Amino acid sequence: MTEAVTIEARNAVKAFGQGDHVVRALDDVSIQIRKGEFFTLLGPSGCGKTTLLRLIAGFEMPTSGTILLDGADITDLPPNRRPVNTVFQSYALFPHLTVAENVGFGLTMQGRPKAEVKARVAEMLALVKLEAMAGRKTSQLSGGQQQRVALARALAPQPKVLLLDEPLSALDLKLRKEMQVELKRLQTETGITFIFVTHDQEEALTMSDRVGVMSAGKLQQVGSPKEIYTRPVNRFVASFIGETNFLPATVVAGGVRLSTGDVVEVATAAMGTVTLTVRPEQVRIVGAGEAGAISARVKFLVYFGTDTHCHLALADGTEVVARVQSPASGEAGIVEGSEIGIRFAPGAAQVLED
Amino acid sequence: MAERRFEISRIPGFATIAVATFVMLYLPIAALVTFSFNAGNSVAVWEGFSLHWYADAWNNQAVKDATARSLIIAVCAAVISTTVATLAAMGTTRRARFRGDTFIYVAINQPLMVPEIVTAVALMILFGMVKEATGYQGLGYLILAHSAFCIPFAYLPIRARLEGMDLSLETAAGDLYATPWQTFRHVTLPLLGPGILAGAMLAFVISLDDVIITEFVKSGGQDTLPTYMLGQLRRTMTPEVNAISTALLALTVVLLTIFFLLTRKRD
Amino acid sequence: MSAAEERLARQSARNGWLLSVPALLLLGVAAIGPLAVIFVYSFLTPGQYGNVVWEFSLDGWISILFTRDIFEGTLGLADAHLTIFWRSVSLSIMTTVVAFALGFPTAWFIATRPAKQRALWLFLITIPFWTNLLIRTFAIMEVIRAEGVLNTALLWIGIIDTPLAIIYTDVAVLIGMAYVYLPLMVLPLFAAIDRFDMRLLEAGYDLYASRWQVLRRVILPIVKPGIVAGSILVFVPSLGAYVTPRVLGGGKNMMIGNFIELQFLAGRNWPLGAALSVTLLVIVTAALLIYVRAANRGSNPHG
Predict the structure, then answer these.
(1) Average pLDDT score over chain A
(2) Least packed by Cβ within 10 Å: which of A39, A180, A237, C239?
(3) ipTM for the predicted complex
C-alpha cells in the first residue's frame, strides 16, 4: 500500500436546519484516505458517517471546509463530474432497465463507444459472476444478486474511489458473510480505493485496512482494526467496539490505584482521576489470595457455549466481567458465590482520561 | 365452513349494510343501462330488447355535434392540463421546501376546493366581457376553462408517482456521470410515464363529465354531451338519454380500468 | 450556510417556481382570477336587465338576508332566502349523516376483505366516484320518479296502489345527494380503516370490551380523522350542489347553487348572486380548513 492520499476532507462541517434548530451532522472533520486502501467509517446511526460519504460523492455541499481528490479541490464539483461512484444502501437500481443496461449506465452517460460499453459490461458481469443475468430486469433478481449488480454498476466506469453506504445491511447473515469476502476480493482485484460505511463493528474489523470511528459528527479515532480494538483513545471507542470493563482509578507512581486500593501497573502520562479499561477476555481468574491478584467474588455466570461470562464483584462492589473458556466436560469450573482473584493480562489494561 | 371461531374484525350488521349499499349503488345504474335497450318509449316499463335508441342517438345531428365537441375539448384539456401539471409536479416535489411552495400547492388544488357553481358564474362574467370585447365566440373559452379545472386531477397522480419514486435513483444517475438533463431523459421521464398517462386519463374523464362550468361558459349552440343531456330534462325523457349515458359510462369504465392497471404496478 | 449551499437552495427554489409558472398562469386566468371578479361584482349596483352598473353599493350583501319593502323602504327579513339557506344546510348535514351511516360499514367491510378481493371492492366504489354526476343523477331520477322503476315495481307487487310522490321533493334531493356523494365518504374512511391496526381489536377484546365497546372506545376514536375527512368531503359539495337539486328538486326545491344561478341567468340581481357566491366560498373554505387541521392531526398524533 502506498502512502499517497486519494481523498481528503479538511475541516468539513455540515449543518442542517436553520436558526435555533441547527444540527451539526458533521463537526469539523479532517481525514486522509490513502490510495488503494479499504477504509471503513464506523459509528452508530446519526454519527455523521453517511453525511461524510455524501460530501465525498458530491450529493451534499459542505457548510464549510473542503474535499480534495488527488490533491485537487472538488468541493463544488457536481456528482456527475467526480470520478467517484457509490453503491447505495437501497442499491438504487433503475427498475426500467435490464441488468446490463444498469451496469453500462455510467459509461453510456460518459458517451463511451457502444462496443467499449458492451465489452466493459461483460467484463464487470463476469467479475461479479452474473453473466447469465444480463438481460433480466433488476426486479427479477434476489437481494444478493441486486447487490452484485449495484457493485458492478459502480465499478464499471473505473472510479478512483468507490463509496459503499451500508451495502450489506439489507442482506441476511449468511449472505452478508459471503459478500464481505466478495467485497474484499473485488477491492484487491481492482485496486480501487474503497470507502465503506457501516455500523457493524465486526464488519469493520474483519474487512478494513483502516477504520475511522465516528460519533456525534466527530471523528474519534483512525487506525488499523487492531489499534482501534486494543488501543481505544477514549471511552466511546472502547465501548462501541467490543465489550469492555470500565474501572474508576487514580494515577499513582508506576500505575493506577483502583477504588479497592489495589494498584495496577500500567504506563500513562495522565494525572488524577482516570478510567481503566480492560477487555473481558484479558481478565484472568486465579486462586483467591494469590500474591498481586485483586480479590473478587463470583456473582453469577452467563453461559455462551464456548465461553462463559463471569460477572464478578470486587471488594468495594465494583463490577468486572471476565470471559473464560467454558469448562471441559466433567470439570466443575468456576462456582457462583466463590471467592477468587483476578489479574489483567500484561499490557492489556488501558488508561482513558476522563 | 362450519369452523367456529371468534372473528376479530367482524361487526354484526356491517356486512349486510355494506352489501345493501353496493346494491343500491349499482341498481340505478343497472336500470339506466337496461332501459337503454328498451324497445318502447318508457324508461321504467320493459317492452323488449332493441338497439334502436342507440341508432337514434347516432343519427341525431345534435348528439353527433355535441359528441365531437366533448371529445375535442376533452383531448385539448387533457393534453394542456397534463403538460403544465407534469411541470408543476416536478417543481413541487422532491426538492427542499422553498418560499411559496405551499402557495403553489394550494393554488394548483384550488379547483377542487371552490364550489363549481361559483367558478362557473365567475367565468361567465369574465369570459362574457372578453367575448364582448373581442367578438371571439369559439371553443377556446371552454378549452381554457376545462384545462384549468383539470390541472389538479392530472397533478395528483403525477405527484404521487414522483413522490413514490426512489430519489436515490436520480442521485445514482448523477453519480454515474449523467447530467441533469440526461437524468431527466433516461431515468425520471421513463419512470414517470405511467403517472403522466394516468393523470391525462383522469383529466380527460373529468373534462368529458363536466356540466356546470360548461353550461355557464358555452356560447350559443356549443352544447357538449352533458349539457345536451341536461337540456333534454325539459322534454319528456326517452331511452335515448339512457343510450348516451350508457355509452359515456362504458368509455369511463374502460379508461378507469386502464388507469387502475397503470397505477397499480407501483406495488 | 456556505455560499455553495445557498446557491443550490436558491437555484432549487427558482426551478420550483419556474416549473410551476405555466400551471399557475392557466389557473390564474381561468380559475383563481375570476373569483376576484365575483368579489368586485358583489359591491356593485344591479343593472336594469341583468349585469351591473359600475356604482358602489352594499345592496347585494344586504339583500342576502333582507328585502326592502317597495312602498315604505324599510328592511324586512327575506324569508324566501332564509328558507333556501336552511334547506341547503340541513339537506347537506342530512346527506352527510346518511352517507356516514351507509359508508362506514361499507368502508369497514372493504377494509376487512382478504387482500386480493379488496382491490375489486374498492374498484367498485371508485367507478361511481368517477362516473358522470349527471348520469348518476339521471339514474336515481329514473328510479324514484312517479312512473319510475321503484313505483312500477311497488305497484306491480301490490305494496302501494298510488305512486309514491318522491320526485321533486326535499327527500328526492337528499336521496340523490347521498347517492352521488357516497363514494366521497367511503374512500377516506377506507383509507383510515386500512391503516387501523387490527391487533388493537384483539387487545380490546382481551381486556374484556364487548363488540360495541370496542367499536365506540377503540375503532371510532382512532379512525376519527377519516370520519372528519369523509364528512367534509361530502358536506362541501352538497352545500354547493347544483345539478342534483336542479334535476331532482324540479326548480322549486332550490339550494344555494340554484339560487345563485337564478340571480345570473334569469338576469335578476348579479350583485346578490356574486355576494351569495362569496358567502358560499367562505363557508366552504372554513369547512376545508377544519378538514386540513383534522387531517394534519391524524398524521401527527403528537403534534
Answers:
(1) 89
(2) A180
(3) 0.86
pLDDT digits (tens, 9 = 90+) for B66-111: 999 999 999 999 999 999 999 999 998 877 788 888 899 889 988 8
CA distances in angstroms from B112 to B20, B119, C89, listed in the order given: 30, 11, 20
Structural domain spans, chain B: 11-50, 61-263
Phi/psi-derived region of residue B98, left when phi > 0, alpha when psi is between -120 and 50, beta in every other case: beta
Q: Are B113 and C288 in contact (CB under 8 A)?
A: yes
Q: What is the CA radius of gyration of chain B?
A: 23
Contact between C220 and C227 under an 8 Å Cβ cutoff? The reply is yes
From 1.10.287.470, 1.10.3720.10, 1.10.357.10, 3.40.50.720, which CATH number describes the C79-299 domain?
Answer: 1.10.3720.10
Cβ-based contacts of B94 with chain A (< 8 Å):
none
* pLDDT over 50 at C303, yes or no: no
What would the pLDDT profile of A225-265 be if each residue is shown by its tens digit?
A: 999 998 899 999 998 988 899 999 999 888 889 888 888 88
* DSSP letter, residue A87: E
Q: Is the CB of residue A62 less than 8 Å away from at least one CB of chain C?
A: yes
**What is the model's pLDDT at position C302?**
40
pLDDT in tens, A3-36: 689 999 999 999 887 777 888 899 999 999 999 9
Q: What is the CATH number of domain B61-263?
A: 1.10.3720.10
Give how far Cα A298 sits from Cα of A19, A334, A338, Å.
54, 8, 6
Closest-CA residue of chain B to A85: B175
C2 and A62 within 8 Å at the Cβ level: the answer is yes
The C-alpha atoms of residue C137 and residue C245 are separated, in whole angstroms, by: 9
Task: With CB atoms and an 8 Å threshold, state whether C131 touches B17.
Answer: no
A224 in contact with C, Cβ within 8 Å:
no
Q: Are B203 and B78 in contact (CB under 8 A)?
A: yes
